[in-house]
Amino acid sequence: MLRYLQARLLALAIALALMSVVVFSFVHLIPGDPVDAMLGTEVDQATKQALRHAMGLDRPLVAQYGWWIGRALRGDLGRSVQTNAPVAAILREKLPVTLELTAAAGVWGLGIALPAGILAAVRRNSVWDLGAMGIALAGVSIPSFWLGVLLILLFALHWRVFPSIGYTPLLRDPGDALRHLVLPAVTLGLGLAGVLTRMVRSGILEELGHDYVRTARAKGLRFSHVVAGHVLRNAVLPTLTVLGLQVTVLLGGAVITEQIFAWPGVGQLTVQAVQSRDYPVLQGIILVVAALATVIQVLVDVGYALLDPRIRYD
Fold this sequence. Notes:
Blueprint (H helix, E strand, L loop, with lengths): L1 H27 L5 H6 L5 H10 L6 H13 L13 H36 L4 H15 L2 H15 L15 H35 L2 H8 L4 H39 L4 H10 L3 H29 L7
């Protein structure tokens, strides 16, 4: 396992290096001049040229990349064009807010998918199965922006159960923080619930046809014990892979959800950075999110070995 982790960490470093090149190249293909976005169009060319030189934008792209990646390796992602604040400090403030929303959406999605998928599999072709698959279909079909607006209209404006917008830190006021978290988490997590419900159902149905299930039943074990103690553990492995991939989807979906609910996280910051041509902030966001996605995939592989003792990375 140790050798495998060392190899994965090396692959992680190579992937991040390649990703940094892609991020740097892609961001610089966005039309518009950050100097114009920062100073406006009425400033004289001498002032613009001085600022462009101070930001290193008059250098060749290769030199700009070397300067940027060298500072990034030291933890310096540059400064925002709009606020002149360090990008690393901005991300330290915004990233936990988005991770809190992503974690809540993940818990909500798993809380729906596991019982719904299990019930749909063990009650195949019943009303419970049709209901669970209907929920799964709705989850993968309903756009998050439409669902978010609908939830605001129903639960915030009509019934006044939850606030429509805003954010409260969890440690400051847990009760108010959870009230603000419910609607964004449901909006973001419903799609995850739909995907995982179908995966759990198909995985359990596949495992129920294996010989070890019939053997366990022949020995007198209750069906619920067989499902909980044997079938579910084997069926959850493909679901774990999909969950790891869906986490990155949640991070991407947070851009829309945070805009709808005025959630002050990385998603909202991304939209602001694109609108203002804030290259350093946009590069930092994409690089950090890509690093998180790669680390999550490594954790998924480690989780495989922990859940299934037959899997060994030698």
